[in-house]
Input
Amino acid sequence: MSRVGILRDYLAQLRSLDAYFARPLDLAEARALVRTRVQRRDELFLAMAHSAFVRPGSPYRALLDAAGCTLRDLEIMVRQRGVEGTLRALYQAGVYLSFEEYNSGEVRRGGREIRFTAADLAGPGGPGAMALRTGGTRSGGRWVNLHIDNLAEQSAPQYGIALDMLAGPRAPVFLWQLGFPSGAAIATWFALGRLRRPPRRWFSLNPVPPRLFGRRGHHRLLLYAARRAARRGGVHLPLPEFAPVTDTAKVLEAVMATLQTEGRGVVITTPSCAVRLAVEARRRGGSLRGLGILTGAEPLTNAKAEEIVRAGARVRCHYASMEAGLMGAPCGNPRDVDDMHFRSDALAMITVPRDLAGVTVETLMLTSLLPTAPRIFWNVEIDDFAQVEERRCGCVWDELGCGPHLLGVRSFTKLTGEGTTVVGSNVVHIVEQVLPQAFGGASTDYQLVEAEDEERLTRLFLLISPSVGPLDEAVVIGRFTEALRATAGTGLGAGGGMRQVWEQADSIRILRREPISTSLGKLLPFHTLGAAQLDQRGVRKGSDRPTTTGRSSS
Output
């Protein structure tokens, strides 16, 4: 975009930003908004169906036509079966997009070929829309228009309710998330501004762009405009400060100072960063008592949660993507550490079976209920599967009618590539619990990397931080393979052809180096480097960017 175009957009944004910050959202309004939408789900669904019928280029209209389904048919089905019952019937009739179809833009149904582009699925544009990058770890992410109206309707209510549940209505908030051009922290920053709960400080995991112009600089212009609009509305929003994962001390000192003076606080960050805070606090002999931590962007595992709780903090997780918005809210009475309520006021969901190397999982298929959604979904399969439970728990989200519960959210695309079908929750347990318990260090000090060696043979590289201290590599490999054998016959640890290869001690090599973060700063238990090479000194060769396994939760 030219500088003139950027400035023109900037002026249009000013008007929409003033309106956004002029009307704050309090806790009572947030709860009422969610409850009302749950009660109006049928109406919201049919309104989205109508927009699918009238929108030019919509693949959903083409799929409905191919199935012989009219708007009147949908109205009858919703009245008789409800929203999810209607979506299941539509799925059986071929009205859906598989994960592969959604990404390729090509669909075949009954001999009919349907093509579409990302623009055909885009949410609202114009003033108030921000071009932000998703946290995709294989492709580097895709650009999505996130509208501030969606932040007001979907994000702000969840943050308001979740923060109150975690630490009370006035606890100071800190951000330690990805900044430009990723949308994670920007969306949180805007939502907190709407709530009149601006973060005390925003620590950015990636550098702040120095230039005002260009695609990345456009975000900086937008940030300045938003800060001015927020000030006019009586809210002071901080600018981001660069604080990479190696600068944990900077973040911890700010948090500890607040805990000492005010007794409580909240950090919104990733599970890995939360572990770093906890480990550093314990190393200093301190405590995080009074701190609530809300995590996303990676799975919150039992091992990570235990390390965080050991330092005195409380931890919960939420589930989000830039394309669908906030999908899962932290449960107030969780059955497990990653127990979340599906945001059924903003989305509808059905599950469909998918075979992963002989193991059947239930993948999630989403439908948008809000016209402000970043991407309009209609029975779109995302690359996640989860354990879905219908259960009353008595927490605030249960009282508001949001459900079902989601547990163990993981990505199937990041479990099946490059022979990593056995790299599931069982190996997470090995990397994050078995090895740290046996040899010391934290869960973030170990990482499993699949790559090709100098001879182009697939190897497993176990990266271990030098901070763990001297180790007998043969003993470490023996403990790893012993634990890997123990996964046989359980979940994704069984039936994978690569497990037998990995059990060969010669196929596993240890590298004493820090675990690798993704291009967007995520630190996950696994990396798949594909055709790139990793030599014995831990230096990556080739131009391929690393991809990751494990997920999200954002």
Remarks:
- The first strand starts at residue 106 and ends at 109.
- The mean pLDDT is 81.
